[in-house]
Design a protein that fits this description.
heterodimer; A: mainly alpha; flat
Chain lengths: 195, 191
């Protein structure tokens, strides 16, 4: 990279600020924009580097957009770049939502706004269900994943209806442990059969 | 101390929510309901706002809750809370553990949590659906069907499948939110 570091930092800030300010629909919509900005336009990353980044951003916890910003920022200019990119991508949300939050309750006092929200609440159910179904379609379906899926779904709904206090974090950890455990058994079996 | 509580709550959510924005909703719902920060209805309203404004849904929700509970500083702290785990984890991967995702154990962990995440999201859709459409949040209350809500839900499903059939793709979330807002105004004005 021949450009001066300060220039790159400024450009990173502007790029991520723009991406944070204009992507509707969350992380996945952002990936298309990121590719356009960093691979096609600026040519700061190769296609392969970009795909590595997407794999990492999607398999680590946290919002995909934040993960991508931290990763790309670090790849291009190190720690400072990652800090600036991460702040830049979250800043538009912070500004826009803070302003909305100041007026939200007053806004809800309007009769027609309250009416609109009786419909919008229903739409949220639809949106969450539709995101879940989309992810279910993408899930690799083996007897194990389907069993884990079904048990989690039933237990989660039952716990919620019977007001049992059980954090979803435990479900996630149990799933992870089952995954590690089965990978190990599978690996051991392979090693045994080799002997 | 509200600031510390907000930071820790969102830090925890940021650290375990694998699978992006929607995967955070079950965790956020649990946290805000158990702390009494928002009612279920307020949370659902706000998920809609977070969906129709730009930026990551999780950051939007964190900012909003922080702001309603503790003003500007609260919103900054909650946002920092939700993004800090990402920042630390990604830095570690980018700088030190470049091959982290290639380890068998890590792949096993990720494969194991995937079905759980999907189940949590669909489970949340069911529980929020039951409370929105049937006022049924737990077994201690009697379910009361919300007729208008159910009709709006059916309209949304019809549009969804209509779009899939004609345009071969899902309608965009913003279009659906606007449509449901219109239907809400229409039905409430008639009745």
């Amino acid at each position: 990279m021949k450009e001066k570091k300060e220039n790159i930092l400024l450009k990173l800030f502007l790029s991520f600020f723009k991406i944070g300010a204009f992507t509707f629909g969350g992380g996945y919509a952002m990936i298309a924009l990121l590719e356009n900005e960093f691979v096609a336009n600026k040519k700061w990353l190769t296609k392969d580097e970009f795909l590595d980044m997407v794999a990492i951003a999607e398999s680590t916890p946290g919002p995909v957009a934040i993960n991508s910003a931290t990763y790309i920022g670090y790849k291009l200019t190190g720690f400072l770049g990652s800090l600036i990119s991460t702040v830049a991508v979250a800043l538009p949300s912070l500004i826009i939502i803070y302003i909305i939050s100041l007026f939200f309750n007053a806004f809800m006092e309007f009769k027609y706004v309250a009416y609109a929200f009786t419909g919008i609440r229903v739409c949220v159910v639809y949106l969450i269900a539709s995101a879940g179904i989309k992810m279910f379609k993408g899930l690799k379906k083996t007897p194990l994943t389907l069993t884990v899926f079904t048990l989690t779904l039933i237990t989660f709904i039952a716990f919620s209806l019977f007001a049992v206090n059980f954090s979803s974090i435990y479900f996630i950890l149990i799933g992870g442990l089952i995954g590690i455990f089965t990978t190990c058994i599978f690996k051991c079996k392979k090693e045994v059969s080799k002997e | 101390m509200i600031y510390l509580k907000l930071f820790l709550t969102f830090f925890k959510i940021g650290a375990v929510s694998f699978g992006g924005g929607y995967a955070m909703i079950p965790l956020i719902r649990e946290a805000v309901l158990s702390h009494g920060w928002l009612t279920e209805e307020e949370l659902v309203d706000f998920i809609a706002v977070a969906e129709s404004t730009p930026g990551p849904v999780a950051v939007n929700i964190a900012t909003f809750i922080g702001s309603t509970k503790a003003g500007l500083l609260g919103s900054i702290i909650s946002t920092l809370g939700v993004i800090t785990p990402s920042f630390i984890i990604i830095l570690i991967i980018a700088a030190i553990l470049k091959n982290l995702l290639k380890y068998k154990g890590v792949q096993g962990f990720l494969a194991g949590i995937r079905p759980v995440i999907v189940a949590l999201i669909l489970g949340t859709a069911v529980t929020i659906g039951l409370s929105t459409l049937f006022a049924f949040s737990d077994v201690s209350v009697k379910p009361v069907p919300n007729l208008m809500g159910i009709i709006i839900f059916l309209c949304l499903l019809a549009v969804h499948f209509g779009c899939r059939l004609i345009a071969k793709k899902k309608p965009s979330p913003i279009i659906m939110i606007l449509l449901s807002a219109g239907l809400g105004i229409l039905f409430n004005s008639i009745m």
